Amino acid sequence: MIFGYARVSTKTQARDGNSLDAQQAALTAAGAEKIYTDTFTGTKMDRPEWDRLRAQLRRGDVLIVTRLDRLARSVSQASGLITEMIDEGITINVLNLGILSNDSVNTL
Q1: Distance between CA atoms of 13 and 26, rounded to whole angstroms?
Q2: Catalytic position from the list 9, 76, 79, 104
Q3: CB of 105 within 8 A of CB of 36?
Q4: Does domain 2-100 have CATH number 3.80.10.10?
Q5: Contacts of 75 by beta carbon, 8 Å cutoff, 6+ apart
Q6: Quick one: how many helices (H) and strands (E) in the chain?
Q7: Where would a tag sit more exposed on the chain, N or C end, judged by fewer CB atoms within 10 A?
Q8: pTM to 2 decimals?
Q9: Are the C-beta atoms of residues 44 and 71 closer than 8 Å to each other?
Q10: Which residues are CB-neighbours of 96 under 8 A, at least 6 positions away?
């Protein structure tokens, strides 16, 4: 299945092009079949909808996010999370970066 994840820290992020509506539109256009959204700080990985999504992800699934900072607060945090998911056979598509997977060739 193809999942999407959108997150804003505050409602004011809409002016920065990070609104939930803008993210959801981009995720839908990229093929997301089910989208989870959080209005929650990126400083914590325990986020209600993220936790629900993470529990659903299985080998062969695809996770789409619009930007890396929507998934995690820092590169090191994102790296650990992405490595964990790739090791589980989940493909991550970061729309402004490319596709990350354990295939021998990636688009990133």
Answers
A1: 16
A2: 9
A3: no
A4: no
A5: 68
A6: 4, 5
A7: C
A8: 0.86
A9: no
A10: 66, 67, 68
